[in-house]
Amino acid sequence: MTAHRLFYLDTHHLTAYVWRQGHLRAEGSFTNSDNGLLAFSHYLARWRDSRFALLANVADEEHALETIPFLSRGDRQALIARKISQHFMGSPLATAFSLGYEKTRRKNEKLLLSALTNPAHFEPWLTRIANAEAPLSGIYTVAQLGGQLLKKLGGERQGCLLLTMQDHSIRESYLRDGQTLFSRMAPIVDSSIAGIASSFAAEAGKLQQYLIGQRQISRDDHLPALIVACPAAVPAISKACLAHDNLVFSIVDSHVAARKLSLKTLPEDNRCDLLYLQLLATDPPRQQFAGPGHRHAYQVNRLRRGILAAGLIALLGGLLLTAHNAWTAYELRQETRTLQASASDLENRYGKIAATFPQLGIDNATLRRLTDQHAALGQQQRPPEPALRRLGQVLEQMPAIILDRLDWRIGREVAGNASGNASAIDSHGETTIINGHVQLAPTASTREVLTLFNEFVERLRNDPDNTVRILQRPFDMESGRPLRGGDDVGEAGLAQPFMIEITRLAP
Questions:
Q1: What's the predicted TM-score (pTM) here?
Q2: Contacts 24+ apart (CB under 8 A), 252-258
Q3: N or C: which end of the chain has fewer CB within 10 A?
Q4: What CA–CA distance (Å, rounded) separates 162 from 463?
């Protein structure tokens, strides 16, 4: 995990801290001299893989309120840059804070412009950071973090004074709606507890008068003042800071404040450096004072970390997919082994059962072929009921027709083609051969027998699915033999049988 290191820059020194899960530990203090800057370069070279942020507590910090019209993003940035150059003489360490929009038809935007007006004080440190290519996330100020400290401590948000001790001075800020509108440093002459207490009381009154003179507050406005001090100094400060002229004091124990901020390294004196550093490590503001050039290494580092994170996610995804596929393959192998064991068991059981069958004298391949043919023939079979139903109806209507024999088979004979090919058998049809005779009275004539036979044939032909062909009539109709009306069955002897062929297509 990338270590988080913080720089605290005051008027004379730069102190480096390492932050780990609420613990702050000082790693070195460097002066603005050749030896100090050289030691700082060595420090950066050693920890260049860390992520850095710089917190400044300097007197050269100015603020200005501006109102700009509602503009698009590009025009807005250009106008803000112009306003900053007008107020702060083009300082590269400047930023703008949006205070919201006016509730008018034009929707003008209110801005707080802030700048560090002495960039030369930062230049030696920023140069060493750039040369070491250390990822600097941004430059922040103690005044900038005052709103977040006030919010954590539960102070007044409408308008409030915040007084903390930094180095050998008091940082006094005026905040409204959580935003620092004015901040300054006041030196402490007497560093004893009594001297610090009296300095807090005096500076709060001076700042109140200054705000009244600047017309940021009126004389009748209630103005709370929040003071953060170490436990040992709280009683003395409580005695020195008495309410007067609408100025009401509230004092917060720095150890209590540290616990509210989840800071595990408690301040040892009245200085509140650790509180602000904890805020910077856990909840840095969105705006900061460093320019794009100062943050180039940080942006490259972020891009590198993003690429590494994406690669790691892709690698983990690939590993998960590989593990899933490996598990699926393992399950398939287990299932294959189970099926193979089951198939082997079934084959053994079949072999044992087949050994009890009578021997057919043919091999398995021939038996399988014969069973397949039998199944195919079974699919082609159909019952004779449709073909014989019509015949039965006609025989019921004509009881004189006696049926001697009936042959039914699947298939019908199809004549050959024009080239002289022999006739073929159409398996889609069926053929019925009827053998029978006509049974009439002995006195019936031949003509009557033939008339009844012809009627029988015509009734069979009434079914459109039937094709009736006479194979043999009851009497031979020869051209050389006349048919006399007096001929009868008795004279001709027994009646000759007839044969009829009925063919029909399968439904």
A1: 0.64
A2: 252/153, 252/226, 252/227, 252/228, 253/229, 254/228, 254/229, 254/230, 255/230, 255/231, 257/149, 257/152, 257/153, 257/228
A3: N
A4: 116
